[in-house]
Amino acid sequence: MDDVKTPSREERKSALSGLGTSRKRVEDARFTQGKGNYVDDIKLKGMLFGDFVRSPVAHARLKNIDTSAALALPGVHAVLTAADLEPLGLHWMPTLAGDKQMVLADGKVLFQGQEVAFVVGDDRYAVADGVSLVEVEYEELPVVTDPFKAELKDAPILREDIADQKEGAHGARRHPNHIFTWEAGEKEQTNKVLEEAEVVADEMVYYHRTHPCPLETCGCVASMDKVNGKLTVWGTFQAPHAVRTVASLISSIPEHNIRIISPDIGGGFGNKVGVYPGYVCSIVASIVTGVPIKWVEDRMDNLMATAFARDYWMHGKISATKEGKITGLWCHTTADHGAFDACADPTKFPAGFMNICTGSYDIPVAYLAVDGVYTNKAPGGVAYRCSFRVTEASYFIERMIEVLAQKLGMDSAELRSKNFIKKEQFPYTSALGWEYDSGDYHQAWEKAMKSVNYKQLREDQAKQLQSFKDGKSRKLMGIGLSHFTEIVGAGPVKNCDILGLGMFDACEIRIHPTGSAIARLGTISQGQGHATTFAQILASEIGIPASDITLEEGDTDTAPYGLGTYGSRSTPVAGAATAMAGRKIRAKAQMIAAYLLEVHDDDLEWDVDRFSVKGAPEKFKTMKEIAFASYNQAIPGVEPGLEAVSYYDPPNMTYPNGAYVVVMEIDVDTGVSDIKQVYALDDCGTRINPMIIEGQVHGGLTEALAISMGQEIAYDEQGNVMTGTLMDFFIPTAWETPNYETDYTETPSPHHPIGAKGVGESPNVGGVSAFSNAVHDAFKPFGLTQAHMPHDHWRVWKIAKDLGLHS
Amino acid sequence: MIPSAFTFYKPENIEKAVSLMVDFGDEARVIAGGHSLIPVMKQRLTDIKHLIDLSGINEIKGIEITDNRISIGAMTTQVELINNEELFKKAPIIREASLQIADPQVRNLGTIGGNVANGDPANDMPGLMQLLDATYKLSGSKGVRDVKAREFYEGAYFTVREDDEILISISFEAPSGGYAYEKQKRKIGDYATAAAGVILKVENNMCSSASIALTNLSDTPVYCNKAVDIILGKEIDNNILTQVTEACVEQSDPVADQRGPVEFKKYVAGIVIKKALTRAIERT
Ligand SMILES: Cc1cc2nc3c(=O)[nH]c(=O)nc-3n(C[C@H](O)[C@H](O)[C@H](O)COP(=O)(O)OP(=O)(O)OC[C@H]3O[C@@H](n4cnc5c(N)ncnc54)[C@H](O)[C@@H]3O)c2cc1C
């Protein structure tokens, strides 16, 4: 025997840093040293800059655009207007939602900040001077910012281009400012249940307009090489392949001549899914000038003009027996889409997955209708750190549960528990048609209630209330509960596509001769840590240490086709593709190992990082050895090399879920809330990297805190954006961010190859309801049923005032 | 967010700076820490052709304390105000208020001169200077003159400073008695929803001296003379505190913004004033 100890199974396993390891993020070394490579870091020879003249008003007819002074300025090369784009057919562009959008104002402007002209010049300074010299004459028109006024008979018509069209991309339109009606569920039956119900709670729940506001704004560098006819665009794209296809379709440049590269992206949160006028104008300007063009938004542009999120008015009715068994749910939503319908939803879902609004509950019958309308606000309606319209749906049902509990005089924790879908009901088909894959809601709920000591919290709250009533304190305590179920991982090609592109995803793996590897995916990390976690999935699948696997995304010339990263789809779809591609590698490796060991394929078994002969573990070939053999052995019937590609069409969505509790103390005089406790239990199925999960939960909770407690895009009645800078648009700093307790249960997805469900968005989905419910809960003893977010100081103060707590 | 072109000057003394101001008139502006000026330049809300940087002028930097008179050079940064132990001993309210300005990054560059000269009603220092009854020393083409802080502010961004005048220092008597500066804001780095400062002395349970001022509750900082008249010579009790608070709120005239409507701001003004009064009294 030699003295070199063979590593044990456990040791070999841990050397891989595979599934379940809190492996450190490999991205951080470059980010923490300022060595990231973002769009704005890209500098090409001869590159010019472009920027927009934007509309200062929300609705106006364009009388004239005079570009002469700007063009006369040294350093300004060109000024594009709609008239210049029209001959190319590029003055309008299709949106992902089946509508079209002006690239540059064509005859009128429809929202403040809309792109009117594109100035191209030597550098940002020349361009900024040029922008200020373009003279635009506006004839102001009446403005509509209230979606309920948009459909009045005498409302000003916003979209004159389609005013007479009775059919839109999603069916009949009943008013020039109406976009679509989308329905799900059983209308008649639901109405009947509601009519006959013992108890019905009826509430209007508004999820206000906010904005993903990634740290890095949107931008691109477009470079048309006139010699070889190839267009390369570096940009902040959450879906680079989709951008390539759309760019080809609208520009008629053949798709093989377009290369889209997403370099490092500084956060996306849905803001970087869509196609923006800046991209189109940069491409056109590069074609016109023959040199690369860079366009990067500033913060105000980003907040004002690129995609917002939410703005859903959700009117709900929920019915139950006197004992608290829910019998039906009805919801009508008025969706404010702004001036163009530029949502980034799967095409067949103009209201996204709003029909997940039955939440975590076993509700026998339900009906949902969503009406989309145009207003004089910026377009968007993207999924800000959530799957399509899932925070809206979750917020809606979690508020409805609270108002129902109030009506029943029942504790809302108990009401939830009474109505959860039971473990044995999975796979569960909801009244609105989704098949929930797995879950154990009762287990999660009980764990959460125990961890926060719910009973004690209610007792503390009662004491605080008494002391308020006795005049000894001006503070109230609120306990915010939420149990959410998300629907993520879009999605099955049979019902999920964007502009006809099926929402599968892909992974391609090459094993190098010395046993390391490169994997490429159709997704693109914007901070999620794909290079870390996908390597872990592979490490466990193919027995090569995660640190020996390079992960690449974002270059359409090298990565396999995929639909990108948003809606928590990377792990459910591309993560599955990764595992499946790994399994193909392993299958071939098994044949090679069998050849090398001179046994039959079936005589081998997989053992962490090697194939060994069944019953004779000392006879084995490691993946490293197999890799080398694949490059130098002539194996009959087996091609050389060790590579695999997998295109994964998921059979179903995944349904992450969780139980959150927020405790806060509210000063009724100042409206200031002090967050005392935030507990977040997540069930995201199989946990790939617990540390990254925790990081995602902290980040998502912080965005949830922002949205619920202060963040908004506010407009005045003239359509002016009131929250155009970070002074008024709330982004929490370390100072405002409370401590978070994270917890988990682990219920794998039965249909996902490794059982993972996605977690990046859960904390935002669950968090918003929990924070908002805490505010509502504090005022519940005084009869508050609904107060709209954000719960900033003055709005909380207003609740107290309206309840008579200031006299 | 790119400012229009400007010429940059960095004079080494006040005479040079003033003469540049005289030369260029209203096309010139001095820049101190730049944390109020640069944002407006970037948004092109103001067109400045000549920018005169005061950071090279050493004579208007630093804190001088002789007996009870404190003089602070206009180019002294907020972080210096916070860290100066002598100043803290003589006028602890300066540190308390300065720590509530913006965030450490802003305070590292923002100066007391820029803060008080700007005329922004949202800035905290002008209110504080009302409270301390400070005197501003201005230097211009017509020479040097003193102006009382309580007479300096005319409206939002309008002050009695002439176009060619530069604020060189701020001086005041070291205050005595209890003090407090209370500020409600939405988040770190935010201007006040409402803020109030109080300095007062209580002798034999009677208020023997008092000063009260408000920040961001009108288009100028507010010195609450009516409230001071009410409290002076009075025995401190709940009733008088309520009267004083009401008199202060009466003098406020806030405008609605994203922080909230007027009614809310007035209500919160009452709260911060009451808190400041209570804390100041506790410290006497
Ligand atoms: C995010 C943020 C948050 C902030 N929050 C607060 C806050 O909560 N409270 C607060 O008080 N301030 C706040 N500020 C403002 C900050 O304190 C500024 O630094 C200060 O108001 C101006 O000082 P400065 O030295 O930067 O002046 P600058 O910006 O350089 O100048 C401001 C103005 O004063 C003029 N000026 C400057 N010095 C002189 C002088 N010696 N003589 C004549 N005119 C002069 C300039 O010409 C200019 O018009 C904030 C700023 C930022 C960016």
Describe the structure.
The complex is a heterodimer of chains A (about 800) and B (about 280). Chain A is of the alpha+beta class and about 800 residues long. Chain A has three domains: about 10-35 and about 505-650, Aldehyde Oxidoreductase, domain 4 (2-Layer Sandwich), CATH 3.30.365.10; about 40-140 and about 215-265 and about 270-305, Aldehyde oxidase/xanthine dehydrogenase, a/b hammerhead (Aldehyde Oxidoreductase, domain 3, Alpha-Beta Complex), CATH 3.90.1170; about 400-490 and about 655-800, Aldehyde Oxidoreductase, domain 4. Helices cover about 30% and strands about 25% of the residues of chain A. Chain A contains 20 helices and 35 strands. In chain A, the strands form ten sheets. Chain A has a seven-stranded mixed β-sheet with strand order 3-7-1-16-13-14-15, sandwiched between helices. In chain A, strands 11, 12, 17, 18, 19 and 20 form a six-stranded mixed β-sheet that branches. A four-stranded mixed β-sheet of chain A has the order 23-33-34-35, sandwiched between helices. In chain A, helix 11 runs parallel beside helix 19 (about 760-780), helix 15 (about 530-540) packs parallel to helix 16 (about 570-595) and helix 16 packs across helix 17. The relative contact order of chain A is 0.12. With about 280 residues, chain B is of the alpha+beta class. Chain B folds into three domains: about 5-55, 2-Layer Sandwich (Uridine Diphospho-n-acetylenolpyruvylglucosamine Reductase, domain 2), CATH 3.30.43; about 60-175, 2-Layer Sandwich (Uridine Diphospho-n-acetylenolpyruvylglucosamine Reductase, domain 3), CATH 3.30.465.10; about 180-280, Enolase-like, domain 1 (2-Layer Sandwich), CATH 3.30.390. Chain B is about 35% helix and about 25% strand. Chain B is built from eleven helices and 14 strands. Chain B has helices at about 15-25, 35-40, 80-85, 85-90, 90-100, 105-110, 110-115, 125-130, 225-230, 240-250, 260-280; strands spanning about 5-10, 30, 50-55, 65, 70-75, 135-140, 145-150, 155, 160, 165-175, 180-185, 195-205, 205-215, 220-225. Chain B has a five-stranded antiparallel β-sheet. A four-stranded antiparallel β-sheet of chain B has the order 11-12-13-14, sandwiched between helices. Chain B has a three-stranded parallel β-sheet with strand order 1-3-2, covered by helices on one side. In chain B, a hairpin with a 6-residue loop joins strand 13 and strand 14 (about 220-225). In chain B, helix 10 (about 240-250) crosses helix 11 (about 260-280). Chain B is globular. Chain B starts with 6 loop residues before the first strand and ends with a helix. The mean pLDDT of chain B is about 95. Classes of the chains: A alpha+beta (about 800), B alpha+beta (about 280). The structure holds flavin-adenine dinucleotide. Flavin-adenine dinucleotide (FAD) binds near residues 34, 37, 118, 125 and 167 of chain B.
